[in-house]
């Protein structure tokens, strides 16, 4: 901090130049695209900017001169307004109050005011002078001369040239040198911006190139957008204010419009500085008060609209700063650098927050000053429960339910809170008694909110199905079953079995109810093995039952659950209440199930980001390395997660090498089972003649209805894309499988095609390249082209 303070003569121009460079880089880049070289383009942008500033300054000086000429004629209006306030009556009022106070004090003391007795006027003595006044003519003439005014002239010595220069030029040296330094820094930054970026990356370390590049791009994008949006807002604000002042009758509206545009860049006090001039002038231009009143109302309305509607919509999220961070930054940088620090406070703090987001050691900067909430809703809800603040916990849930679907709120807030309670209990950070109290609070809150909310009626075209929810083990699992009942009850009849019920009683109840579906529900961290055990018990007692293994978790990983719970124990696996509702609706009410997956297309970009890491890992080395096989495995896992599917496969055709196979959600012997059924494998044969093949229901489609592989593992949905070589030979397939009938959107189909092209390119490069070194370069070029 001491370095920043004592070095402010250098740091302030440097920071101002950097701030202006964010604003002028797009203009310089535009000139470069038009064919002008970088150095001339940068100089043209700087020269035009200086010319524009000089023109605005000249216009403002002219307006100030006109205002100075017209100002004396408003003296009478100011005098009338002062007289209308009756300020001279304040003296008489204070004297009256003092007299009344004295009288009251004397009356409380019981003493009458002392008054002097009236006495008759005494006769005045008559004194006669014994001497007579003698008239002196010389003295009379001297007194007459003394009564005449005497002219006095003060002559100052002639001011030297050095003193004149010192008095006029010295105050201008500091701002002129600062301006010159800003212009020089700005020109060099525009010309060498790429070199400066490379030096910053080198300074941060080559091993952190990705982090440094992301930080530079993020900071430049946020600061540039903030400055451009604020410039637009200030210009519009100044234009509207100038027109309003002209209509009201305030002189020199152009001057005030320009000042408003410039001064609003200063946080907090800028608008007050801009409004002070028009308000004071409106006080003088008219003998009445209406001009001042309309001017104040105009500024108040414009600032309310700009500060609460326009600015939040345009750039509130672009800075990434919380309101308290903006205030703290303004105070800190103002104390450090004065008025320039106040002007630079927001951009400098934005850069610090971006660094905090990219560098783990400085993450506290993002936590302190960032606009993201310090705790996610699930942890906030959990903290309110721990502090026994059920009022705020209820308000939090009700606020989320007002804007989000019920299943989404339960999946993102309540289920993670249950998981946190279970983790604390298993880690012995919370006693069992305390955990039970918190769980009961969750149960009461959700029941209370559900009882006061209106639920939609079940569809009249279907007979409601009976669904039984069985907790895997304890009270947390039972509460999860109750949450599932809240989601499923509008369309189905849901029964929840208590967690205290013995296993024999559970099986007897299921046998007597004959449910259409049985959901074994649990929450992490130790419920998966209990879910598997409970599913096995139910399957042994009811071999034909439709069983769903439901491990409700915020980190939804269907393939992991599917690989650990066999299809013999549970035909279907789900990891959220939303998926549970979708699975049950598609299986129990297939005729009324909406095509939700066809509507979900906005998340495809995020899914591509999840798949990018394993895909680009393939381009970095030999495809037969163990790490590359791991990349294919992660690709299959992320592919299943992106499509909300339990199974995904990267499989090879017959007689192809199988080192690059990958699977998730199936046991180890699943692929060998598929290969023994047909030659080549069924998964490759289905797509051998198609560019992309989607079978919404494999049980109804003649191409897949008789496939033993699908029947063995309960596959009801298939989406596949062939892996074709450059000559059209099918060398394998990329498949997404599900245990329920469903659809995928067009964008999800496009993403499957994109992934297949990348995988095929990586495989062919490995087969065609004899050594690892050319493989890396060639694969990198091909991936960049894709």
From TrEMBL:
Alphabetical list of Pfam families matching this protein: AI-2E_transport (PF01594), GAF (PF01590)
Keyword Transmembrane helix in annotation: yes
Subcellular location: Membrane
GO CC annotations on file: membrane
Domain GAF: 627-773
Membrane topology listed for this record: Multi-pass membrane protein
Superkingdom of the organism of origin: Bacteria
TM segment ranges: 12-31, 43-61, 172-192, 231-248, 254-279, 291-310, 322-355
Keyword tags: Membrane, Transmembrane, Transmembrane helix
Keyword match Transmembrane: yes
InterPro entries associated with the record: AI-2E-like, GAF, GAF-like_dom_sf
Comp. bias intervals (Low complexity): 112-121
Region (Disordered): 111-146, 766-786
Composition skew (Polar residues), residue ranges: 777-786
Similarity comment: family membership: Belongs to the autoinducer-2 exporter (AI-2E) (TC 2.A.86) family.
Descriptive protein name: Putative PurR-regulated permease PerM
């Amino acid at each position: 901090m001491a370095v920043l303070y004592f070095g402010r003569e250098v740091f302030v121009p440097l920071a101002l130049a950097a701030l202006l460079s964010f604003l002028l880089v797009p203009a310089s880049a535009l000139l470069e695209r038009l064919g002008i070289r970088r150095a001339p383009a940068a100089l043209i942008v700087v020269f035009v900017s200086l010319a524009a500033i000089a023109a605005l300054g000249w216009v403002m000086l002219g307006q100030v001169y006109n205002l100075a000429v017209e100002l004396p004629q408003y003296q009478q209006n100011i005098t009338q307004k002062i007289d209308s306030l009756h300020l001279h009556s304040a003296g008489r009022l204070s004297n009256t109050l003092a007299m009344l106070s004295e009288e009251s004090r004397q009356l409380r003391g019981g003493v009458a005011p002392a008054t002097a007795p009236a006495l008759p006027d005494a006769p005045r003595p008559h004194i006669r002078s014994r001497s007579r006044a003698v008239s002196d003519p010389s003295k009379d003439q001297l007194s007459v001369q003394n009564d005449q005014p005497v002219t006095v002239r003060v002559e100052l010595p002639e001011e030297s040239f050095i003193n004149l220069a010192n008095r006029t030029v010295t105050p201008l040296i500091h701002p002129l040198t600062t301006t010159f330094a800003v212009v020089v820094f700005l020109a060099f930054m525009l010309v060498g911006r790429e070199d400066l970026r490379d030096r910053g990356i080198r300074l941060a370390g080559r091993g952190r190139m990705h982090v440094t590049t992301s930080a530079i791009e993020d900071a430049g994008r946020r600061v540039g957008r903030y400055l451009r949006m604020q410039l637009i807002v200030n210009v519009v604000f100044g234009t509207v204010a100038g027109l309003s002042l002209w209509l009201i009758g305030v002189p020199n509206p152009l001057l005030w419009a320009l000042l408003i545009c410039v001064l609003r860049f200063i946080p907090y006090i800028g608008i007050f500085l801009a409004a002070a001039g028009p308000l004071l002038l409106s006080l003088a231009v008219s003998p009445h008060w209406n001009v001042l009143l309309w001017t104040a109302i105009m500024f108040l309305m414009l600032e309310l609209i700009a500060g609460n509607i326009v600015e939040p919509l345009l750039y509130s999220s672009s800075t990434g700063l919380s309101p308290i961070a903006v205030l703290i930054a303004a105070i800190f940088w103002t104390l450090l650098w004065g008025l320039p620090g106040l002007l630079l406070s927001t951009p400098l703090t934005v850069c610090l927050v971006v660094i905090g987001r990219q560098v783990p050691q400085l993450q506290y900067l993002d936590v302190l000053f960032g606009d993201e909430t310090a705790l996610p809703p699930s942890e906030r809800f959990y903290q309110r429960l721990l502090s026994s603040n059920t009022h705020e916990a209820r308000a939090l849930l009700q606020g989320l339910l007002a804007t989000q679907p019920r299943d989404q709120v339960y999946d993102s807030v309540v289920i993670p809170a249950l998981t946190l309670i279970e983790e604390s209990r298993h880690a012995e950070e919370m006693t069992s008694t305390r955990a039970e109290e918190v769980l009961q609070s969750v149960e009461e809150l959700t029941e209370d909110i559900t009882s006061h909310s209106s639920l939609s009626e079940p569809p009249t075209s279907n007979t409601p199905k009976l669904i039984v929810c069985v907790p895997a083990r304890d009270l947390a699992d039972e509460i999860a079953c109750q949450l599932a009942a809240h989601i499923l009850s509008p369309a189905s009849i849901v029964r929840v079995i208590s967690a205290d019920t013995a296993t024999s009683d559970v099986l007897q109840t299921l046998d007597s109810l004959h449910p259409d579906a049985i959901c074994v529900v649990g929450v992490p961290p130790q419920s998966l093995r209990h879910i598997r055990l409970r599913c096995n018990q139910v399957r042994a007692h009811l071999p034909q039952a439709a069983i769903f293994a439901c491990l409700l978790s915020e980190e939804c990983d269907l393939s992991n659950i599917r690989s650990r719970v066999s299809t013999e124990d549970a035909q279907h696996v789900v990891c959220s209440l939303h998926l549970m509702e979708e699975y049950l609706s598609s299986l129990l009410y297939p005729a009324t199930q909406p095509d939700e997956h066809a509507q979900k297309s906005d998340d495809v970009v995020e899914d591509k980001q999840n798949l990018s890491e394993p895909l680009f890992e393939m381009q970095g080395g030999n495809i037969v390395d163990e790490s590359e096989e791991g990349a294919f495995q992660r690709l299959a896992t992320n592919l299943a997660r992106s499509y909300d599917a339990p199974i995904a496969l990267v499989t090879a055709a017959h007689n192809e090498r199988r080192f690059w196979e990958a699977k998730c959600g199936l046991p180890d012997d699943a692929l060998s089972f598929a290969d023994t059924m047909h030659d080549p494998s069924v998964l490759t044969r289905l797509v051998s003649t198609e560019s992309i093949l989607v079978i919404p229901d494999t049980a109804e489609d003649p191409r897949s209805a008789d496939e033993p592989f699908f029947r063995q593992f309960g596959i009801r949905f298939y989406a596949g894309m062939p892996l074709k070589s450059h000559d059209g030979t099918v060398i394998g397939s990329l498949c997404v499988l599900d245990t329920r009938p469903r659809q995928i959107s067009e964008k999800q189909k496009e993403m499957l095609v994109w992934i297949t092209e990348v995988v095929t390119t990586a495989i062919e490069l490995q087969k065609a390249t004899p050594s690892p070194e050319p493989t890396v370069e060639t694969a990198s070029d091909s991936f960049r082209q894709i």
